[in-house]
Design goal:
240 residues; alpha+beta; seven-stranded mixed sheet; two-stranded parallel sheet
C-alpha cells in the first residue's frame, strides 16, 4: 500500500500537480525527505493534512500566545485517551509499522503533537514509556506516556492511547504565568486568565470528539485547510 501511494505521488509530481497528503506524511524519515526534495525540485506545493491548526480554538490561541496573554508558558500537555475496537484494527495494515508507521501516537495523537509544536514550539528532550498491543492484537503501541522539554524551557506531558474504554475527549492544557487555557475535543473550553483583556475567547461546549467514533470528527477544519492550500497553490490573495 505504501509503495502504491508513493508511485501515485511521484506521478502527480511528474505531471506538475500539487500534492496534499494525509497524515502521516511518511512512515520513515528517508521517504519524507525524498518527498520534500522532489517537490522542491519540481516547484510544486507539498502539504500534509494538519486540519486542527485551523480550529477556532487553535487560531485564537496562536494569536493569544503571541500577544503574551497567557504570560510565559511553563507547561503544555496533551491527553488523547481514546478507544478503538478490535474491528477497527482488523483491517489489513492497521497498527503495523510497515503500513502506518506505528499505532496510537502516529495515527491518533499526531494531531495533538502537531498542535503542541505549532503553539508552543520545538521539543528538545523526550522520555517515554509505551505498551505494544496492551489491549489490541497489533504489533505497535496502543498506549504511550511521555514527558517533554520544550526549547523555550517549558515542560509537558503527552499521553495517548486507543485502549481506554469507552474513550474520552482529547484535551490540550496550556499553563502560563498569567493563566490557563484548555482545549477539549477541539473546542476552547477553559480560558482562566487573570486581568485579561482583548479579543473575546471562543469558549464553547465540547462536541464532535473522535474518542470512540472516528466519524464524529468535524469536517469544517479540513475545509479550511483545503482552502488554505488552494491559496498557496494559486499564490493570489484574491482567491483566498
Amino acid at each position: 500500500m505504501t509503495s502504491r501511494r508513493w508511485v501515485f505521488r511521484e506521478l502527480c509530481v511528474a505531471a506538475g500537480k500539487h500534492v496534499l497528503v494525509q497524515k502521516p506524511m511518511a512512515v520513515d524519515f528517508a521517504t519524507a525527505d525524498r518527498m520534500i526534495a522532489i517537490a522542491a525540485n519540481a516547484g510544486i506545493q507539498l502539504g500534509v493534512v494538519s486540519q486542527h491548526r485551523f480550529d477556532d480554538a487553535t487560531l485564537f490561541l496562536k494569536r493569544a500566545i503571541a500577544e503574551g496573554r497567557l504570560g510565559r508558558i511553563f507547561q503544555a500537555d496533551a491527553y488523547v485517551k481514546w478507544f478503538r475496537s478490535a474491528e477497527y484494527y482488523s483491517r489489513p495494515g492497521k497498527g503495523s509499522w510497515a503500513v502506518e508507521g506505528g499505532g496510537a501516537l502516529i495515527n491518533q495523537a499526531i494531531h495533538q503533537v502537531d498542535l503542541l509544536l505549532h503553539l508552543i514550539g520545538s521539543v528538545t528532550r523526550v522520555y517515554g514509556e509505551w505498551q505494544l498491543g496492551s489491549l489490541h492484537a497489533i504489533e505497535s503501541e496502543d498506549l504511550l506516556s511521555s514527558t517533554l522539554r520544550y526549547a523555550s524551557g517549558a515542560t509537558g506531558i503527552l499521553q495517548c492511547s486507543t485502549a481506554m474504554w469507552p474513550g474520552y475527549p482529547e484535551r490540550i492544557e496550556i499553563h502560563g504565568t498569567k493563566g490557563t487555557a484548555i482545549v477539549t475535543a477541539d473546542k476552547l473550553t477553559t480560558w482562566d486568565v487573570a486581568g485579561d483583556s482583548g479579543e473575546d475567547p471562543p469558549i464553547s461546549a465540547q462536541n464532535g470528539s473522535g474518542a470512540s467514533d472516528p466519524m464524529a470528527i468535524s469536517t469544517i477544519s479540513f475545509e479550511r485547510q483545503f482552502l488554505d492550500f488552494r491559496c498557496s497553490v494559486s499564490g493570489s490573495e484574491s482567491s483566498c
